[in-house]
Amino acid sequence: MASKVWFITGSSKGFGKVWAEAALARGDLVAATARDPATLSDLVERYGDKVAALKLDVTDKAAVDATIAEAHKRFGRLDVVINNAGYGQFGAIEEISEEDARAQIETNLFGALWVTQAALPIMRAQKSGHIIQISSIGGVNAFPSIGLYHASKWALEGFSQALSLEAADLGIHVTLVEPAGFSTDWGGPSAKVAKPISAYDPARARTAERRRTTVPGDPQATGPAMLALVDAAEPPLRVFFGDVGLPMIRQEYANRLALWEKWDFIADMAQGEKKNRKA
Question: How far apart are CA 39 and CA 4, in angstroms?
Fold first, then answer.
């Protein structure tokens, strides 16, 4: 199998580092990005010129364009682009400040959008490529105390599904990876927490209890899973990482369908005379 060229945002720790190491260990080439490229020095020491350690703040569109161009110039192509950079914003909706909200969306949504837009012309010219968006179980479900995080991931899911249809004839695949809980620092040092309002303490406690009783997955185990995904001839639009996603979303979708069915008489009412005449 010919080696692939990867571009991975947020490569200094967590999932990003695991996937960069998995790709490099099998002989692929990786443009690894981080806000501080010094955090990538261990990858450079081990893999030499197979890895390009690049500085990148994904909220800076001009920097994104320049960094994608630099990676392309260095390696000659881009086969896999992984939008992994992001963080969790904790806080009930009323607790979220304007600054909190804008920062969350700028990083998790616009950052992925800028990288995607910069990579697409290169992949169109190649007539091949795979864009992998790191969403979350929180991209298809929602829980108290992380509403703005959900907003960023639900929006990522929407534009990525549209993109998958737009790029289908161009040789470009799009996949949304939806991890459940893993022992990364998403809820630790990487997280941001809004100033709390005591009225939301009960909802916050329920969320904390749910997280406390959930056994987190091992990020290292996702390395082989990611390799299998990028090597698939026809990769999926969506895939869960972890074994809790599918049972959870089965129940969530069953609940949604039941609710829509129960209130379908309102949908009929909203259709008005046209619906009645058709009947």
Answer: 23
